[in-house]
Amino acid sequence: MATVQQLDPIYVDVTQSSNDFLRLKQELANGTPEAGER
Fold first, then answer.
1. Whole-structure pTM value
2. What are the Multidrug resistance protein MdtA-like beta-barrel domain coordinates in residue numbering (predicted)?
3. Distances in Å between the alpha carbon of 13 and those of 8, 10, 36?
4. Are the beta carbons of 27 and 34 closer than 8 angstroms?
5. Residues 28/22, Cβ–Cβ less than 8 Å
6. What is the pLDDT along the chain (38 residues), one digit of tens a residue?
7. Residue 5 pLDDT
8. How many angstroms separate the CA atoms of 34 and 24, rounded?
């Protein structure tokens, strides 16, 4: 069995409006996320 002691950081740049992010966060909290545009 292996033990992971450290991971390399991963940086992600996401272009998403704060309104979209807040809506998604609320949907996830409610358990009702919907598929949207890509």
1. 0.46
2. 9-32
3. 16, 10, 19
4. yes
5. no
6. 788 788 888 888 878 898 988 988 899 999 887 776 55
7. 80
8. 9
